[in-house]
Amino acid sequence: MTKQTYAIGVDYGTESGRALVVDVATGRELGSAVHAYANSVLDERLPADAGGAILEPDWALQDPNDYLEVLKHAVPAAIKASGISPNDVVGIGIDFTACTMLPTRADGTPLCFLPEFRHKPHSWVKLWKHHAAQPEADHVNAVARAMGEPWLDRYGGKISSEWFFPKVLQILTEAPEIYHAADRFIEACDWVIWQLTGAETRNSCTAGYKAMWQKETGYPRREYLAALNPDFANVVSDKMACPVSPLGSRAGGLSHAAAVWTGLPAGIAVAVANVDAHVTVPSAQATDPGTMVMIMGTSICHMVIGEHLHVVPGMCGVVEDGITPGTFGYEAGQSAVGDIFGWFIEHGVPATVSDEARAAGVSVHTLLEQRAARLKPGESGLIALDWHNGNRSTLVDVELGGLMLGSTLLTKPHEQYRALIEATAFGTREIIEALERHGVPVHRLVAAGGLPERNKLLMQIYADVTQRSIGVVRAEQAPAQGAALHGAVAAGAYANILDAARAMGGLKDEAFVPNAANKAIYDELFTEYKKLYDYFGRGANNVMKTLKRMKREARSA
Amino acid sequence: MTKQTYAIGVDYGTESGRALVVDVATGRELGSAVHAYANSVLDERLPADAGGAILEPDWALQDPNDYLEVLKHAVPAAIKASGISPNDVVGIGIDFTACTMLPTRADGTPLCFLPEFRHKPHSWVKLWKHHAAQPEADHVNAVARAMGEPWLDRYGGKISSEWFFPKVLQILTEAPEIYHAADRFIEACDWVIWQLTGAETRNSCTAGYKAMWQKETGYPRREYLAALNPDFANVVSDKMACPVSPLGSRAGGLSHAAAVWTGLPAGIAVAVANVDAHVTVPSAQATDPGTMVMIMGTSICHMVIGEHLHVVPGMCGVVEDGITPGTFGYEAGQSAVGDIFGWFIEHGVPATVSDEARAAGVSVHTLLEQRAARLKPGESGLIALDWHNGNRSTLVDVELGGLMLGSTLLTKPHEQYRALIEATAFGTREIIEALERHGVPVHRLVAAGGLPERNKLLMQIYADVTQRSIGVVRAEQAPAQGAALHGAVAAGAYANILDAARAMGGLKDEAFVPNAANKAIYDELFTEYKKLYDYFGRGANNVMKTLKRMKREARSA
Prior knowledge:
The structure is a homodimer.
Chain A (H helix, E strand, L loop, with lengths): L5 E7 L3 E8 L5 E8 L24 E2 L1 H19 L6 E8 L4 E4 L20 E2 L7 H14 L16 H11 L1 H6 L2 E4 H10 L4 E2 H7 L11 H7 L6 H5 L4 E2 L4 E4 L2 H7 L6 E3 L2 E2 L4 H4 L7 E6 L3 E7 L10 E4 L7 E7 L3 H10 L3 H10 L3 H10 L9 E3 L16 E6 L5 H25 L6 E5 L2 H4 L1 H11 L3 E4 L4 H13 L6 H8 L2 E6 L6 H19 L5 H14 L1
Parallel strand pairs in A: 1-5, 5-12, 5-13, 9-10, 14-20, 20-21
Antiparallel strand pairs in A: 1-2, 2-3, 4-7, 6-8, 11-12, 14-15, 15-17, 16-17, 18-19, 21-22
Helix pairs in contact in A: 1-9, 2-3, 12-13, 13-14, 14-16, 17-18
């Protein structure tokens, strides 16, 4: 009998980091601990000890020291909670929000750690939801379109303000002294791996999905970067150059310093970094082509492995080695899902209903779900468009808005609630159909995230609308478990991610099976949804954009 | 100095009747009294003393005896409240809901008063909102279209199930023994005048707007009626024949029996009957061409006088002598206005808002109005279609549904509330534009009904959206005051309704004046509304009808 070994996964979220101890042989979760970031999200001002500068609207920064504190506190606490010996840990992996990036010195020191830059907002980590680089994103897109850059189509024809180059370009534009003082611009996840190993690496997931890196051609070419700004011409060669490593590869051994922080043995394998959504795919055993993973929460991130490269309009990205080595990882998304239900419950449900929920001892969500579940498909008489936060895939348009159609004087909140759920399911179906139309099959679905546990009606509607069965990832902390799985692969416990996924990943026994009796009705409703989708989303009627413009004009008048 | 004289107006509503004493010289309201109908609206079963038969869905009946009770109680009470002597009353007029009709014997005895018919639902009064004659209405429309009946276009191309011939045809179809036993089919308003005078009359308003009577051609021709049903061929000649009298004319003198009921002098003038909305026009001094009266409540009824006959698509009707003698009265309508706001407040406003309203000591309506009033036009980012109860004018389509477009995760209830108000204002603007496109000018607006008093923001939005000033009728009980005005004309106190309107009608000092600064924004929003109106209302996208069909199928499955 071989010795029992363990891997650690660290999941870096928006407000805290979670460490998890996982059994390398079975993938079982043995113990975890969470550490909140002391500086959380900086969206109003810098910390007082950094001068407290006021931040502009749409800014969102973080403190890289908080990431180190997670290693120092959450990892030892998780080991303690699991009851294992740290000496039996063979590998560690991490996953992160993305694009979350920072400027550093050549030795990896964040500029915000240096007294001469600490009071300057541009020296800090730009969190994924830093949205202040929209002018730069517009410029990135306009120049790429004008120059016919071949990678643009792989990212839905539009680069987000959240991504790497707009954020770096904002630093160059607004704080050239920071831009020039930075030896490196790096994803925070790669920076954490650097701190763990003492060596800089870059991973194919964030490089591919957030920095337009493609395996055959690398990052965007010099001529294009120069066209963005002459001072930007050499940003890749000067400040980013580093081999891009496939996921699951060994970034290095745990440094002595990091061994002290974590309580783990020095020299154990550290995997290259990964993104929170993508790292979940092997945890869900969705490494075979045709299985789509949906991370379902406030929004949905859809990921599916393809064997070949296809340009599917409206994807977030398609990246070779982006999810598993040797395949093409397709990522799509819906900008708001749980957020729409949350908005509706906060602003659209009357006291009569919330009082009844309280009297029944259930949440308003649950009461609406119970009532909506008693409706048959089509019975609400309503159809909605789920664009309250714009549409990411397949329209890539933040200027769209929500729609509710078919209300009568008898329409009730639970009918609207069901129509909103159905709209988000139609949104997923449209993504699946776009993939399949362009050569990427999607046979079955696997769900992760908060929604599958909380809303069974929603899951059944997704199964019925897509007429595909939906499994649910088994791991309670799927991203952290996926990160640990990558750590196990880096340690050589498995030959590759696929083998590790077979052994360590898994689904719950419970699955959502499509009800064939609902197929015809949902097909008809989807046809209507699609007609509205194309009419309002593809230029025939731009009323949603007109309303947003008029709203801005009214507010600035 | 001439002796001071008075006229009585009796306004028959859906659940009660109101009598009002009015000064003939000035139109001043001196005293009123309300009498509730003992049997109210019979929509579940007949009264117990009539056997208690269960009524089908969509039925709505009344008891004609309740109308007589109003004469016996409300009229004497109003005289008492006013402090006048009944001997100074010179005339009486009434107005009524319509089409509200009943079968009677040749002497005017309602069939439901006779023991042999009293237990049969079809012998009772069919109230305006009796909607069970839809199959008959469909038949009336299909045959009229097939035979190219010339009057169809004057009624928006579609006869409502609420109107006279569908209701009579339902009696023939479902209870032929009642049909054959009936010597007369008559509007309840004309029946009340019959009871007051002892002689049958028919008025040009209900005949014109509810029974397709036209001054030049009379009722629908025999060949058409025979095509509906051979037994229906002679319904007009056998059961309706009677001269149609113009409004304001003298139906007769008050009978001795009615003098006993009312306490009024026998022989005083009784005016021919009228409809509640139309009778308000002279009270609002809107007897000149180009002034549109809007009766604004749960729905809106629009009336405007034209000098010439034009066929305006989507009107409820155009009738010569329909509102004032010698002119063409155009009627249009919006199926739901106040009802939409009521629905939204009942089902779409969260406890946080209703709690704030309670704490502030105001209604939810008022709180939303206050907040919505602080928004600039265009600031909500929303646009709505006000079709929650279908669209009467100009689309004449009950199968349409409501729409709310442009919601975001930050959209608040008061923004939706304002968008709903704006939608109903756009609906009125579309009616005005349809009239003007087809040759009927609309220069200014006068409002009556409950909304003008209760919602100043709504009135200002209507003024801004239509860019027309809106006066408000002065009378507190405008329909009853208008009915009394007709009684005064019948008594010869004035030469005609126009003279009476000048003396007795009037507007409040307060008026709503359009804000020119809002014109451009509302023009742009109306352009967007109109695009949606035509797209969803005129066949390009029939999703609303599809959803209603699917809802019916789901419910019957």
